[in-house]
Write a structure and sequence with these properties.
Length: about 270
């Protein structure tokens, strides 16, 4: 048994989808969440910057003696793989667990990944998925650069015209396609899953990178006898607007009050 907390980080509120998924699987664990909203969005940044950011964010969490870290960010998980792999605290991204789940989808229908521009253009999602599938299936990657900043700005409701317009602009090229599955490759996207379903149709199977990663992290902790926790509590740190974060996080997590603490905006 290990009562140390689990660390989670993201560029903002998107990582809360990872925390929510982990709490369903490991309700007794304690968590430290860092939302680096003062430096978001991560998506447009070059890879060298993203790798420095990943190291800084994990160093911040390591100060709280975390036993494992979840990079609940598709962009970081795809662009900063070497940083996560070499970090002294066990660190997990959301890409590999999600790609394993996608590759296991039966049949030969095309598979689609929607993610930030950085994640799609890096090829980390699409190339790795094609390799896992033995290059036998069509893999489609769709960049959705508007989604994360829009969600951080508070546009999350399926009926919000801003959300509906952004979803249409990004996903119009794939509407009507018959996919085996579509991966929400950025953790922010789970927050507007209803709007994505409304536009693409309820029959399109959606997989969540956050949920896949939470399952993988749970399995690792169980296998290494690292589960524990004191009271299922959580501390929240945000490098951006605290009130905006609290106003979203409390109803979204549906588990007690959220009072985030201010974190510094770290210089690159």
């Amino acid at each position: 048994m290990d009562n140390r907390p689990i660390g989670i980080y993201d560029s903002g509120i998107g990582g809360l989808t990872g925390l929510k998924a982990l709490r369903k699987l490991l309700p007794d664990e304690d968590y430290v969440f860092f939302g680096d909203s003062g430096r978001m969005p991560y998506g447009p940044r070059p890879i060298d910057e993203l790798r420095r950011i990943a190291a800084q964010d994990m160093d911040f969490l390591a100060k709280f003696d975390v036993k494992a870290i979840l990079a609940a960010c598709g962009t970081i998980s795809s662009a900063a793989r070497p940083v996560l792999a070499e970090y002294p605290v066990p660190a997990f991204g959301v890409v590999d667990p999600a790609l394993d789940a996608m590759a296991a989808v039966p049949g030969d229908k095309p598979l689609c990944v929607i993610a930030t521009a950085a994640s799609i253009h890096s090829g980390e999602f699409t190339d790795a998925l094609a390799k896992r599938c033995g290059y036998s299936r069509e893999i489609i990657g769709v960049p959705c650069p508007e989604f994360a900043p829009m969600i951080e700005a508070g546009h999350i409701r399926r009926s919000d015209p801003v959300v509906m317009d952004a979803v249409q602009r990004a996903l119009a090229p794939i509407r009507g396609r018959d996919f085996g599955a579509l991966l929400l490759g950025c953790t922010h996207y789970g927050i507007i899953e209803d709007a994505i379903r409304d536009y693409l149709g309820a029959d399109v199977p959606l997989l969540s990178a956050s949920e896949c990663a939470a399952t993988a992290l749970r399995d690792y902790l169980v296998q290494h006898d690292l589960t524990g926790g004191e009271n299922g509590g959580a501390r929240f740190f945000v490098s951006g607007d605290l009130r905006q974060f609290d106003a979203f996080a409390e109803p979204y997590l549906e588990r007690g009050p959220v009072h985030a603490e201010q974190a510094p905006i770290m210089e690159l």
